[in-house]
């Protein structure tokens, strides 16, 4: 039996409370993220800088569209460009029509002379419409593919970045922006880029026509475009800046709305009469939000007004130039008539182009958040270290391990040392915040220590692909998620077995090397003995060890969850989420049983149980620990619990205080040592024995 060791540790000092100014929100200010200064700088660029930026944004949009579908990208761009060419043909043919009509001679002869050009005009109009429709079709096909590509890329990274990334306060903000707006921006940007192409193609067509009619008209057209483009870009920038400034307020509003209209908070909200406080917070946030929005709308309207006035003046100037050329006899009447039509078409094309310059610029800013997040997340990927591989470990050794979470001063774990062999159970105990969960995360390879090592069979986890290690870990964590899947899928989570409902996770190789009693890959539609809806006449007393269903059921039984699941309306097939039609919810203890069943099903050689019985009733707790003890000889078990009666069977107990291991040893040795463990144990025991 190991000797108990007791070391000294200092006690925590007192804490101070933040004070809140009265009359303002009592919710603390959300922290600014790294990207804020970056994107403010980006959003306040001048018109010229924006124009320089557009090609790069467009190139990025086309690149992502290209990745989504080459065929549709080419089709959308090419058909829009061809439609522009058809527009130019149509306009030039119009000049032929007007020339023929304005020529001298009898009306019938003039009309006859105009017919060939009229046919070209009609054909050009027909072709242009057809090309635009096909381009629109390609664009409509492209957009959902682009969105899927962008989202898929995002989720590939968010599910793979180091767990430590989530401890960075800015990361969730960045992720939210990229997820909520950034991915959508990719779709809008693609739409904007293609519409901009269409607008520019139309503009180019009319510009070519005007240049052929008279070069001066081209200059006039360009001059007329500037005010409208300026107004559009400025309005977009105002919208972006206001949106950007409102992010943290909107998040708070969202949080408040979730607190006030949520089943989970409804009871506590009432019992603690929190309604006035929450409504007041809402009023403060929503009031500020509305004021900001109204101010933005006012400034946008002013901008558009100024842009409109200048645009009108510029257009008037163009018509004056046209009139002067006509009076000067430097432009024939037919050409002047064509120029009027071309200018009309140019105005439409310009409106399309300007609207989409606006959109592309604005979406480009959001898109930038998306690409920046991808880059930032890419930096936080686990290192691709395949120097070594790990198999189911026979021993785990922690040497002088220290762990600091991001942006915290005090280490969560400080110089921890422990060794555990297969067949052993170690228990981590200590006060709240003493570092138990953090140490368990190090053991599981979810975090790597800042200094020191965690080795499995002598291989440091920092040198292996983390997924290699996680395949050998099962975890009943303190804060397990209520996965909105069926009861069965909740037990199967993350394993390579296919559920009967076909919502299988992507298969992973070698989920578990440890031999199991029965096959884990039984076919999805393996014959079932009877209904699983809980109305079965013949209760399934004996698990069918060698079938897929049998293994799920056996795990549920070990966790004391089978009877509960069998009693659900559709048994193992019951959806455990009230968000779905026919979905059910479970009590806290029932969810915890399910979490334990998941760990038993995974049957991994390393089992981490972090407060696995916190919500269980006494009988269920007793059964759970009996099941854990029964499986202990085949695995390494790490047990964290505040109920010390449950750790007395552990082979070795580690007592933590402020990240230090301050005592360790077997139960009886620690009692004999008379340290913190003995004190806490006696305290709990008194609770049961006191009269
Ligand atoms: N993700 C995190 N980011 C920053 N600090 C964290 C994080 N997780 C834990 N901590 C801090 O690290 C310290 C140790 O936390 P840990 O969860 O390991 O304690 P614990 O002993 O498991 O506590 P409990 O008994 O309450 O579960 C605490 O001070 C906690 O505030």
UniProtKB/TrEMBL annotation:
Q: Please state every residue range assigned to the domain named ABC transmembrane type-1.
A: 74-362
| Chain intervals with Basic and acidic residues compositional bias | 498-547
Bias (Low complexity): 10-25
Spans through the membrane: 74-93, 113-138, 188-212, 218-241, 305-327
Recite the UniProt keywords alphabetically. ATP-binding, Membrane, Nucleotide-binding, Transmembrane, Transmembrane helix
User: How is this protein positioned relative to the membrane?
Assistant: Multi-pass membrane protein
Q: What is this protein called?
A: ABC transporter ATP-binding protein
Q: Which organism is it from?
A: Dactylosporangium maewongense
């Amino acid at each position: 039996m190991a000797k108990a060791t007791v070391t000294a540790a200092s006690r925590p000092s007192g804490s101070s409370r933040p004070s809140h100014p009265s009359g303002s929100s009592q919710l603390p200010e959300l922290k600014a993220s790294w990207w804020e200064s970056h994107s403010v700088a980006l959003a306040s660029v001048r018109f010229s800088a924006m124009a320089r930026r557009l090609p790069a944004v467009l190139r990025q949009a086309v690149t992502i569209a290209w990745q989504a579908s080459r065929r549709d990208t080419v089709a959308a761009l090419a058909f829009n460009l061809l439609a522009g060419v058809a527009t130019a043909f149509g306009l030039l043919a119009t000049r032929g029509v007007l020339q023929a009509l304005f020529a001298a001679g009898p009306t019938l002869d003039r009309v006859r002379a105009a017919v060939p050009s009229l046919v070209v005009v009609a054909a050009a109009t027909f072709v242009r419409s057809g090309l635009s429709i096909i381009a629109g079709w390609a664009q409509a096909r492209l957009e959902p593919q682009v969105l899927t590509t962008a989202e898929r890329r995002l989720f590939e990274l968010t599910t793979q970045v180091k767990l430590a990334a989530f401890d960075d306060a800015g990361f969730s903000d960045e992720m939210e922006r990229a997820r909520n707006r950034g991915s959508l921006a990719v779709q809008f940007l693609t739409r904007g880029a293609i519409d901009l192409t269409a607008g520019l193609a139309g503009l180019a067509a009319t510009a070519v026509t005007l240049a052929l009619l008279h070069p001066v008209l081209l200059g006039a057209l360009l001059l007329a475009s500037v005010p409208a483009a300026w107004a559009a870009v400025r309005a977009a920038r105002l919208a972006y800046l206001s949106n950007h400034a409102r992010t943290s307020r909107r998040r708070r509003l969202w949080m408040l709305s979730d607190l006030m209209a949520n089943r989970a908070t409804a009871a506590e909200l009432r019992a603690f009469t929190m309604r006035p406080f929450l409504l007041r917070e809402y009023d403060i946030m929503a009031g500020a939000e509305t004021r900001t929005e109204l101010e933005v709308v006012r400034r946008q309207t002013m901008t558009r007004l100024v842009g409109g006035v200048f645009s009108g003046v510029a257009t008037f100037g163009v018509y004056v130039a046209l009139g002067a050329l006509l009076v000067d006899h430097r432009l024939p009447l037919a050409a002047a008539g064509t120029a009027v039509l071309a200018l009309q078409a140019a105005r439409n094309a310009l409106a399309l182009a300007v609207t989409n310059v606006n959109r592309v610029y604005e979406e480009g800013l959001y898109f930038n958040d998306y690409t920046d997040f991808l880059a930032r997340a890419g930096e936080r990927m686990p290192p691709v270290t395949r120097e070594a591989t790990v198999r189911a470990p026979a021993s785990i050794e922690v040497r002088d391990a220290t762990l600091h979470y991001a942006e915290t001063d005090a280490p969560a774990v400080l110089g921890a040392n422990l060794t555990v062999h297969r067949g052993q159970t170690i228990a981590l105990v200590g006060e709240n915040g003493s570092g138990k969960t953090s140490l368990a995360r190090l053991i599981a390879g979810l975090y790597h220590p800042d200094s020191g090592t965690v080795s499995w069979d002598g291989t440091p986890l920092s040198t292996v692909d983390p997924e290699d290690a996680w395949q050998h870990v099962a975890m009943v964590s303190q804060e397990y998620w209520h996965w909105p899947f069926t009861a069965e899928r909740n037990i199967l989570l993350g394993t390579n077995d296919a559920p009967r409902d076909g919502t299988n996770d992507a298969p992973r190789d070698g989920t578990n090397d440890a031999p199991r009693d029965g096959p884990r890959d039984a076919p999805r539609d393996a014959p079932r003995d009877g209904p699983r809806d809980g109305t079965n006449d013949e209760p399934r007393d004996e698990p069918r060890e060698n079938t897929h269903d049998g293994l799920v059921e056996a795990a549920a039984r070990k966790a004391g969850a089978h009877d509960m699941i069998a009693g659900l309306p559709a048994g193992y097939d019951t959806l455990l989420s009230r968000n779905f039609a026919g979905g059910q919810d479970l009590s806290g203890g029932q969810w915890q049983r399910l979490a334990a069943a998941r760990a038993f099903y995974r049957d991994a050689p390393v089992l981490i149980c972090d407060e696995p019985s916190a919500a269980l009733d006494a009988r269920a707790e007793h059964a759970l620990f009996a099941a854990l003890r029964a499986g202990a000889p085949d695995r390494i078990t790490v047990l964290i619990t505040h109920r010390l009666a449950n750790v007395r069977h552990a082979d070795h107990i580690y007592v933590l205080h402020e990240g230090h291991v301050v005592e360790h040893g077997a139960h009886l040795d620690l009692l004999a040592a008379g340290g913190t463990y003995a004190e806490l144990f006696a305290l709990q025991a008194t609770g049961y024995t006191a009269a």
